[in-house]
Amino acid sequence: MAYTTVSIWAFVFSVYFDVSKCYFAIPLKIYSGRYNVSSDHVDLTRRVALTSDGTGLSLASDPTGTVNFLDMVNNLQGDYGRGYYIEMSIGTPGQKVNILVDTGSSNFAVAAAPHPFITHYFDTALSGTYQSSGRTVAVRYTQGNWEGELGTDRVSIPNGPNGNFTINIAAILSSEGFFLPGVNWQGILGLAYPTLARPDSSVEPFFNSLVQQLGIPDIFSLQMCGAGLSASNTVDTPGGSLILGGAEPTLYQGSVWYTPIVEEWYFQVEVLKLEVGDQNLELDCREYNMDKAIVDSGTTLLRLPVNVFNAVVEAITRSSLIQDFSSGFWDGSKLACWMKGETPWRIFPKLSIYLRATNTSQSFRITILPKLYIQPITDEDGMLDCFRFGLSSSANGLVIGATVMEGFYVVFDRTQRRLGFALSSCAVSDGEALSEIAGPFSAADVAANCSGGRLKEPLMWVISYALMAVCAVVLIILLLLLVLPCRRNRSGEITDESSLVRHRIK
Q1: Positive or negative CA dihedral for 36, 37, 43, 49?
Q2: Scanning 164, 185, 207, 465, which has its CA 20 to 30 A from the CA of 456?
């Protein structure tokens, strides 16, 4: 009887908390260390305009225009270990802050009070244009949280579109585990859809406001240049580019390959299969999309559903020369180290992800080389070169994070509800390309719909309340039958395994 009771409670609580997850991202763990960035030099003198490439994608190509995409080149700093951030000016007069770029959330939030791990913050009292809405907002993460108030203010981006615009701001007044030692940013820029905004979707996200007020196309593109390179003591080297309003051709090579956005909340895509070297994992495609498959600049690693992750590790072990590697390397608890000057990349295979093409009967393949997922970590004594595994398991879906994104120039074409991938001009190390892209391939042998449906939010709340009622009934029955006090966990802890910059060097 006791065993059955415990089982019932375990089932009820596991289901309840699983459907009550919140969709946010936040940095959780950081190792110190900085990395060199190798990128091609571009001519920053030409003026450009928004034109079309014939498919509706805005390009920077007309030297007689007035919008200067090239001013946005190298407007990001940071790397995969610290996150990528852009400088902004908030308020009147403007106060400069660095804001983390995150395509896996939708709130624009900035520190508005002192914190021991940040050098400065946005002081709302010093801004003549800040207006508080009187609404509070609180976000709790697996290992961190922040609380504050909602308001609006004027914002400009020195290396972004010309002009000022008014946006919603979450002024962070208190936090725990959000700002961490070693970061050089004071807030977060959520670039996803209104569905993820908190406390509700009425809080218009930053980019939505930018598009509406400045009249730029509903497209942005992202180049992240920090990984696959040796650690360096260089401070705040350019880490990439965020092009707001279109795409800059000097930042990528070859064609842009597009995959549909399956659903507009996260940037959800459809993964058809994975390969390790030339080995197809031979899993049902629904395994790859279990819960969701998203593209998230705020997540450091390539995060895979547990079954997929285990299959990838097994395939890497079979195809490499590392049969006796410690399990701690695969689960992220240990680093693998070699003597100074030795590198392990030659013994690891390529990893490939097949995405559904906009022609749904076809797919294309994005491939990362070992230098992107076997990642260097600074060794303090300088005697060893140490590396970590750039993949991890996930309980909440597949997340294409910085480990993969740093190999590609990614176009977030919200107008045509599609994501584009092209070879990044900075994904090169020692003359070797760190990524590949190929296609099209036939998708005739793959299910017509590999994306697992998710519960819509209103339905989730209905089910949550129904389960709470069931819990209450079970509680009463147990009290009557056992005459024992039964306490329900009311911690309210919100967890989301696809969180921002999780398992960082979030």
Answers
A1: negative
A2: 207
* Structure-block tokens of residue 220: 């942005």
pLDDT in tens, 28-84: 333 222 222 223 333 322 333 444 444 444 444 333 344 578 889 999 998 777 789
The answer to whether the CB of 277 falls within 8 A of the CB of 352 is no
How is residue 175 written in tokens?
Answer: 């936090």
Q: Tokens 């289901």, residue?
A: 15
pLDDT in the model for residue 323? 59
Q: State how far the Cα of 17 lies from the Cα of 201, in Å rounded to an integer.
A: 22
Q: Which helix (H) or strand (E) holds 404?
A: helix 402-405
Q: Is 102 a catalytic residue?
A: yes
| Helix (H) and strand (E) counts in the chain | 8, 33
Active-site residue identified among 102, 153, 413, 496: 102
d(CA 389, CA 204): 37
Specify the residue for token string 């969701």: 292
Host H or E run for residue 138 = strand 131-141
pTM for the structure as a whole: 0.79
**293, β-bridge pairs:** 398
Given 71, 79, 153, 296, which residue is catalytic? Answer: 296
Distance between CA atoms of residues 489 and 153, nearest Å: 39
How confident is the model at residue 16, as a pLDDT?
42
Task: Measure the CA–CA gap between 392 and 410, rounded to whole angstroms.
Answer: 22
Which stretches in the chain have pLDDT values below 70?
1-67, 140-143, 227-238, 321-324, 378-381, 452-469, 471-474, 478-506
169: left (phi over 0), alpha (psi -120 to 50) or beta: beta
pLDDT tens digits for range 255-298: 999 999 999 999 999 999 999 998 999 999 999 999 999 999 98
Active site residue 291: no
Could you count the other beta carbons within 10 Å of the beta carbon of residue 54?
A: 7
What is the rounded distance in angstroms from the CA atom of residue 462 to the CA atom of residue 59? 45
* CB 278, CB 360: distance < 8 Å: no
Nearest to 75 by CA among 222, 246, 213, 232: 222
3 state DSSP class of 271 = strand
Backbone Cα Rg of the chain? 23
C-alpha–C-alpha distance, residues 294 and 266, integer Å: 6
Alpha helices by DSSP H, listed for 22-70, are none
CB-CB contact of 295 with 400 (8 Å): yes
